[in-house]
Write the structure tokens for this entry.
Amino acid sequence: MSDAGIERRRRALALFREAVEIAPAEREAWLDHACSNDNALRAAVDALLVADASGTEPFAGDALAWGRAFQDDHGDVARDALVGRSIGPWRITGILGHGGMGAVYRVDRDDGAYTQHAALKLIRAGTDSQAARERFLRERQILARLRHPNIATLLDGGISGDGDPWFVMELVDGQPIDRWCDARQLGLRQRIVLFLQVVDAVRHAHRNLVVHRDLKPSNLLVDNEGRVKLLDFGIAKELADTRAMTVDRALTFEYASPEQLLDAPITTATDLWQLGVVLHRLLTGAHPFGVTRETPVAHQLQQLEREPEPLTRAAAQASDDQASQRGGHSPASLARALRGSLAQMVQACLRRDPGARYASADLLASDLRAWLDDRPISAVPQPRADRARLWLRRNRGLAAAAGMVVLALFAGTGVALWQAHEARVQARIAERESESARATLAFLADTLAAAAPEQAMSTEVSVRQLLDQARAKLDQRALDPQVRQPLQRMLGRLYRSLGDDQQAVVLFSAGLKGVAPQTREEALALADDLVAYSDELGDLERTAESLAAAEQAVALRQRFAPDDAEQQLRSMAHLTLGHVEKYGLEWCRKRAESSLAFAKRMPSPPADVVLDIYSDISTAANFQNDRRRLLSVSREGLAYADAHGIAADSPVRRTLVRSLVSGLILEGKPAEAERVVRQAIAAAEKTGGYGGTSATVWYQTLADTLIGQGRYREAREATDRSYALSSQHGEGPRNLAMALANITAIDIMYGDYAAALVRSTQGIARLDEAGVSPDDNFRRTIERVHARALVANGGFKEAATRLDDLLARAKRLDGEASDEYAQVLGDQLNLSLRTRDAARAAPLLAELRTRTAQRGVPDNHEQFGYFSAMEATLDRLRGDAAAAEQHQRDALQRLQASASDVDVAIARATLAGDVAARGDRKEARRLLDQALPVMRETLLPAERNRLDAEALSSRLQG
């Protein structure tokens, strides 16, 4: 095909992908405009659309006719009728499967000459086009001259009595190569050894001028003896055949090369591409473009035009089961094992330009064997240090430099002396790296040995004890910085996973000091460590340092990987408290949303980064009390985790789980939220890792679920635990002040007003001492809680002043439509009701009702029950007893549906007062009998609602 033809094919595929997304009624007009006057282009797009609509492969010509013939139900009956018949010396005993041009039958030798089981391939009756018969006969001709132990052997052939061509080949009793490897959990070296049989078979075909063109696991069967057999040369091409092949386009999309999709010239490079896809799948368990047979055609084409997923990234995103099937690896260790030569070989196979791939299967086989022998590969130039390190793996003695010097002396030339010098330098580099590796392994071995029962004097050693031992040994031992600092950073990550932020920061700081990466790999690994360090600093509220570390990580990614989409995503995705302080919460939310959109445009973004983005968006929604966004994004993020095989108890899911809990609380489902959060805490305590959410936050979240159920005593125990953990871990002033504010809120609900004011005052003092800005989001939340404590203790004037100031800040920083503004309005309403200011309370209540409805909160939500109770309070202030009773009954009815038992009890007790006021002592007594046991169980005697209920009970008894 000419260059113009290839370009037209590419353009047709691009238009097809867009056209399938357009409604049929609008598609014609769109195509007329898109194709303009190019009739050939329009015909190509129309052919693809017809093929897609018919469910067959999207190719023009006879391939479509074959597809329709193959789906003919009458063909199945005819093929079944062949079972039991004989063709030549072979009796058909069953159907093995259906190939691209006909059925494949199991046959037995039936002429008595000898016993043999085999496979017979017969072109389907009715597919009598000249092209189909030529293809079938070409396959038979190819097999006749291919004699190789890894290629299924042709045994016989001929024409049946009905005029149908057939041939018989050896019967391979085996499994597809990928399933065979996974079933036996073969390690990487074993898989490469097996894959070399495939490459050898392809090499043999290429030497005989045959390109297979359909290499895929189902055509690569492995028998019980571990022998690979290459099958199905049905669409193979003879390189010597110069005839036009315009209608010969059958292929498997999952493994199709770019030139096959574009109908460009086919060479041996096509098989190299398909070998790369198969090898990628064998090593990672994933397709490099993320497509399967179930992927819609349009999306297959879209995926196949993208860049392939790097081998190491695919491995890192593998499920635990997939990684374990490759020699017991974890996803992380599998990614490490695939770095370097293996990843480079697969990448060399999957270059879009055929001329940039391996020049031959021989070179691929040579590189695979080089990898097995720890020798350098030819796919890409390797740094000197890498070549020397591979040499040292092969040669355990370290005499390379001396040997090269001797060689130089004998050679007596300047070139030889230069080579000797280079070898000495490389050997010294490799020796230093080897010494570093040995020192690292020796250190880890000593640390683990200390955990042995005879050393630890115990059969159980906790992770924390092991880490403490490792840290102590690291402090005591004189190690080179290139050994010490990576160990410090590793230990920093482990202490972070245990929630010890202080120790993690110390180790990270020492492990990162003065480190200057030289290579791309070193720089990106260092950037990841800087991100972890930044997060630790953020947890300790050292925001300026946290932001500096984050920006340093971004600078490394931009310098060493400016065109890498994954590294660009990692730079965009990482947000810290420093970003919030510098740019504001709304800026951070928008950046997180942009990062998510960028990730969705990538073919296979790193799952851990995507989950971090979802976590950031959900956290922002939580701060903004955006219930709908909080629930939707947390559920979407958890669904993404499920789809990517992230274990249910994995720490990387936990921030999203916490966001889901917060959303359930806002939705009025505290019991469901409690169940979820207790499962998360149990999993975290079992593994010792809380992920990106600290134990402090988890226990406070548990308290929130208990508050929603009116279980204040248990909630207070959880908040006390949260505060103790905050103090124990040395958390920053915001976290400590927030923990105190949470205790304050429970004390107010519980009825311990004096203690509430003490706690909130302490929290404000911590913020003042730390110089936290009045505009800080955390501070404003804590100040609102402090205002509630003031109201509860009769400090109405000071509370009013603080709330007016908070409302002004919310208007300036968040806007009048914000949830923060509404929260302050709610606290002002509470103050107005406590001070009996009905004129001020009425418009505030009306505004809050409207805002709540506009946010999409359903009418049956308990929030409207609380609004009805407030309306009843306003009625009493106005002296309208009948309206008060009516509103209070409405409040009780609404709250009974979903509110906590204690809130329902308070509503009953309040209604009892309204009923008693009109003289119905019997009903009032009944309501109190239901309410008081719950209130006495839950609230302190000094709590105002309980005080009023107890007083009413005394009056009714008098």
About this structure: The radius of gyration is 37 Å.
